[in-house]
Amino acid sequence: MDILLVASAFNSLSQRVYAELSDQGHRVDVVLASHGAEAVRAAVREARPELVVAPMLKTALPEDVWREHTCLIVHPGPPGDRGPSSLDWAIAEEASHWGVTVLQAEAAMDAGDVWAAEPFPVSPVGKSDLYRNEVSDAASAAVLLAVRRFAEGSFKPRAQSDPAVRVVWRDFFRQERRRIDWENDSTDTVLRKLRGADSQPGVLDELLGREVFLHGGHPEDRLRGRPGDLLATRAGAVCRATRDGAVWIPELRPRKSSGDPAPFRRPAASVLASMPAPTGAAAQGTPRPGDGPHRLPEDAAPLELPPDRNTWTDIRYRQLGDVGFLSFSFPGGAMSTDHCRRLLAAYRYALARPASVLVLGGSRDFFSNGIHLNVIEAAADPAGESWANLNALNDLVEAVLRTTDRLVVAALGGNAAAGGVMLALAADQVWCRAGTVLNPHYRRMGLYGSEYWTYTLPRRVGTGAAQRLTTEALPVSAATAARIGLVDRLVPAAPQRFTTEVEHRAAALADTPDLARRIAAKAAARRADEEQRPLAEYRRAELARMRAVFFDPSAPYHALRSAFVRKLPSGSARPLRAVGEQVTGGAR
């Protein structure tokens, strides 16, 4: 069928629906609702779709569109649930299970007939992680079912007036409900509030006398202090005391009125360090990152955490038998210069351990989305920080490529894009959870790309396919990635089972009788490739093109990066027709 996707942003769910409907042979076009009702009407007139699907929508469809065409809306709540903050309420009310409903658009919000519905378990993770995984799985299944039912023509959608449907209206989840009472809220309550707003909108709070939004939350089992006090920093995060414990907060976002020139999310310690020194009552005994008498102590977590610890760390190594696991999880999948350098140090640590198989990744949610655009945008010299970040990521990728004494597996529990995909391709095998979306390109950010992609991508998919992937700049489903050779193995596991499944498969790989032969063949192939063309030449050629963009103030990259980071509209309302233009929301 001809299907038009209408989405407020071409986000992870919109990309997955686009890719999986395309895999089934449908002709899918996309229009961004953020460009206004007239852009949607124009897209409908041009595409003349048989069906309109809205996988992620923050504004209502124009009435003339849903009256003249069947329009299916994806609502992240079970049948009968209505309102704009469904997932927020599910997390706040500690629901054990929730659902996704595909319903037909009509005048009343979320009140249309139900075409499909899928339940899912609510894992104890942040809202954005839940959305990209359990919600995405349920939404994909529900959309594919609804589209099939529509195509067959015999299905009659169920009206929500059916007595079996319990209708519940849930109001917009406002900041008043999210606010943390540090003196009285338990650690569990604080974590629930933080996780319910980890990506958007954050929890509005006050630090150092200024209003900021808190993003993300993880428990801490040892550090203690007066409720609300900042206790320590670790890997860019800050630890804050609760009534009965403490939590780690990875990112902060200054409120616009705070005077901060960069009111977007970035590592918490850097945001606090950039704030003007507090004055008056706010300054009394308030420790802060940076120099001076109130500097917060750095509390480093070991790479190998003892089993009795319950604390946050973004990089962790563990070993099971002959398999090493180097896991990492960075907010939004973005890897700053510091992230890359610390991960490289951890990778070298892992190489010093006796193992024949090393698994890189293996956690649920994002694998990597490449360089950290938010940190770059906030830097005093964005061009210089872009260059430093890219070189740090190249150093990491090169270390993986030059590993010849063991097999390296990249295990993608979630989405990857740009340099994050190329980091995975540096491994000997790429394992990917079914449902993951890959964006193996850089063009939508106005970049040529690096991370040795001109070596690894053609080697896997061929020169022609590599050219198409990087120039068409379209999302690739896990199934297509496996079909074209971008991925070696699909792992059909639920998000919460992915790590365990990877452990089983990695143990089986380590027990393979011909493992030593395969490692020797890998080393021989690397030597042969190096003789034909050294890795240094690939890097030099790629970086020459990237440097020319980074240090050209008029290059589109700078405006595209700023729009992406600040969530400003940019590019075309038709993102897949206007290849090379940035889509607000991007791969993250």
Overall mean pLDDT stands at 93
Overall structural class, as computed from helix and strand content, comes to alpha/beta
CATH fold node name of the largest domain: 2-enoyl-CoA Hydratase, Chain A, domain 1
Which term fits the overall shape? globular
Beta-strand residue fraction: 15-25%
> What composes the largest sheet?
6 strands, mixed
So how many helices?
Answer: 19
Secondary structure tally: strands: 25
User: How far apart are the first and last residues' alpha carbons, in Å?
Assistant: 28 Å
Bin the helical content.
Answer: 25-40%
Q: CATH superfamily assignment of the largest domain?
A: 2-enoyl-CoA Hydratase, Chain A, domain 1
Unreliable spans: 578-588
CATH class of the largest domain: Alpha Beta
Task: Walk me through the structure.
This protein folds into three domains: 2-163, Formyl transferase, N-terminal domain (Rossmann fold, 3-Layer(aba) Sandwich); 175-273, Methionyl-tRNA Fmet Formyltransferase, Chain A, domain 2 (Roll); 315-495 and 516-565, 2-enoyl-CoA Hydratase, Chain A, domain 1 (Alpha-Beta Complex), CATH 3.90.226. Helix 1 (12-23) packs parallel to helix 5. The strands form six sheets. A six-stranded mixed β-sheet has the order 2-1-3-4-6-7, sandwiched between helices. It has a six-stranded mixed β-sheet with strand order 17-18-19-20-22-25, with helices on both faces. With 588 residues, the protein is an alpha/beta fold. The two termini are 28 Å apart. Helix 3 links the parallel strand 3 (51-56) and strand 4. 36% of the residues lie in helices and 20% in strands.
